[in-house]
Design goal:
- With 497 residues, the chain is an alpha+beta fold.
- The chain has 9 helices and 22 strands.
- It has helices at 4-8, 120-126, 224-242, 297-305, 338-355, 381-398, 409-412, 466-469, 479-484; strands at residues 30-37, 41-49, 52-58, 70-79, 87-89, 97-109, 128-135, 139-146, 156-161, 215-217, 222-223, 247-251, 263-265, 278-282, 288-292, 308-313, 326-332, 360-363, 369-374, 403-404, 416-419, 446-447.
- An 8-stranded antiparallel β-barrel has the order 1-2-3-4-9-8-7-6. A 6-stranded mixed beta sheet has the order 20-21-17-19-18-22, with helices on one face. A 3-stranded antiparallel beta sheet has the order 13-12-16.
- Helix 3 crosses helix 4 (297-305).
- The chain starts with a helix and ends in a 13-residue tail after the last helix.
């Protein structure tokens, strides 16, 4: 069905283009950009998804300069075999002209790493894609954003280079080779380990703030200075949940808003100061990634000044990356009401208590709830996820009309999704006390179980109000969880799926 338009436009007895046949996808999805000398020169930008190449026609050569926003017209899907096509399409045939491969490689869908993961198809439906290109000419983070008010039914998008270590200013023709990736100096060539570079020390009073007047939350009027001061003040409570954990940064250097840069950063750019600690880990493709470790306030504030708004942490620490400290039950209401999520969370708590486990709860900072359980049993991520699946199954059995572990959004209906799939090595979670990148500047906030009532309103925990809640007399409901990480791990029980 996806290739019907492609077939209808072509006579394969006359054109050398590949016919549309079922094809096996690649383990790592590919992209290709084809230079197409048709009636007008343009560049066909294609991303592999769902067994086809999702395609856009880009009138001007793609650029590594974030200032160059290229029009991209969404066109019909192409077969995967089109990724290697180069040649001449005869006169009289659709797209007549010469085709050559301008760039190719693999890509990573950044939407899959978000707090609410999306496939490429879901991103196209929503009107926004974010991805990392691993090509010969194009590298780093890019976005495709659907434009509003397209003419004559055309689906017009913008192809935008996002700011990262590969971004560069280019001349008017976009010529020149891509920059070599920058890497942190002195990063230890070990599978895990942190360092503090020589010749530089963190500032005694924290990092400097630049452009304090920049508006980060336009709907609320909160500025970069407001965000910076929030993190300066919350640092003593936040740092225990960040320390020694590989960090993925959610960066919005120009604040919230349609078309503004919004990307996810794992690798620490080489221009970051030497005093910022890193841990170098191999990616799935084998290329080392230098994750930042946010172990002190100076590092935290430096990253905030660089546009980091939300911090996402691993479930494990650098001393034992294969073994999580806790298990996450992520309760996503979806189409259900928050009161339903509260009901499911309370049933989950009761189930865990019957099994003899301690549990802690917090708001996600968006629409859901997070229930955290210390992982004290034997085994690593596979065992913790299998255990979480078993517990979630008990909750669904008790509340079949309100809870589900169904991964398909279309099949969940108005049931609360009990997500346990994030319990995996390399995945991440929002820790307590971080700001979320949505209007209102909400904060992921620890709760006492007695606060979990149908009247709960997570929106009232935000940048402006949170400190009225966090008085010196009020304990952190998750403090026991954080303190348990300081102790030597002594399994209290065994679990075997």
């Amino acid at each position: 069905m996806a290739l019907e338009t492609y077939r209808a436009k072509r006579d394969f007895r006359k054109t050398p283009e590949p016919e549309a046949r079922p094809e096996k996808g690649h383990r790592q999805p590919i992209f290709v950009i084809q230079e197409h000398h048709a009636s007008r020169l343009h560049y066909d930008f294609r991303l592999e998804a769902d067994g086809v190449l999702k395609s856009w026609a880009v009138p001007r050569q793609p650029s590594l300069d974030p200032a160059d926003k290229r029009l991209a017209v969404h066109v019909e899907d192409h077969p995967l075999s089109y990724a290697t096509f180069a040649g001449s399409i005869p006169e009289g045939q659709y797209g007549a002209g010469r085709v050559s491969i301008w760039d190719h490689g693999t890509y990573t869908n950044l939407l899959e790493e978000k707090a609410e993961p999306q496939t490429v198809a879901e991103g196209i439906e929503a009107g926004r894609l974010e991805f990392v290109l691993h090509g010969e000419k194009l590298r780093g983070r890019f976005a495709l954003i659907r434009m509003k008010g397209g003419k004559r039914g055309k689906d017009n998008w913008l192809l935008i280079k996002m700011r990262d270590e590969f971004a560069r200013r280019e001349d008017s023709d976009g010529e020149g080779p891509p920059p070599k990736p920058k890497t942190g100096r002195g990063v230890r060539k070990a599978s895990a380990g942190s360092r503090r570079g020589r010749g530089s020390e963190p500032p005694s009073d924290g990092a400097a703030l630049t452009h304090p007047e920049k508006v980060v939350y336009p709907d609320d009027g909160y500025t970069k200075a407001d965000v910076f001061q929030y993190y300066r003040r919350i640092a003593p409570r936040l740092l225990p949940y960040l320390r020694d954990r590989p960090i993925t940064l959610e960066r919005l250097p120009d604040g919230l808003g349609d078309g503004k840069p919004h990307f996810w950063q794992k690798h620490t750019p080489g221009y970051y100061p030497d005093w910022i600690p890193r841990v170098e880990l191999p990616s799935e493709r084998g290329k080392p990634v230098a994750y930042t470790l946010v172990n002190d306030r100076a590092t935290l504030l430096y990253l905030v000044n660089q546009g980091a708004l939300t911090f996402h942490v691993w479930f494990s620490r650098v001393n034992d990356l294969d073994r999580p400290d806790f298990v996450l039950f992520d309760l996503d209401p979806g189409q259900a009401a928050l009161a339903d999520a509260v009901t499911v969370a309370r049933e989950l708590h009761a189930t865990l208590q019957r099994e003899g486990y301690r549990a802690f709860v917090k708001t996600s900072g968006k629409t859901g709830l997070h229930v955290l359980v210390p992982w004290e049993a034997e085994g690593g991520y596979d065992e913790s996820r299998a255990w979480a699946h078993e517990i979630a199954g008990q909750v669904v059995e008790a509340l079949p009309g309100q809870a589900t572990t169904e991964t398909s959004k279309a099949k969940r209906g108005r049931r609360v999704y009990l997500d346990i799939l994030q319990n995996a090595r390399g995945h991440h979670v929002v820790p307590p006390y971080v700001l979320r990148a949505v209007p209102g500047a909400p904060v992921s906030t620890p709760l006492d179980w007695r606060e979990l009532t149908p009247n709960l309103d997570p929106v009232r925990f935000n940048l402006r109000t949170i400190f009225r809640r966090l008085t010196p007399r009020r304990r952190d409901p998750l403090a026991t969880l954080a303190r348990s990480w300081k102790k030597e791990r002594r399994p209290s029980r065994s679990y075997r799926p």
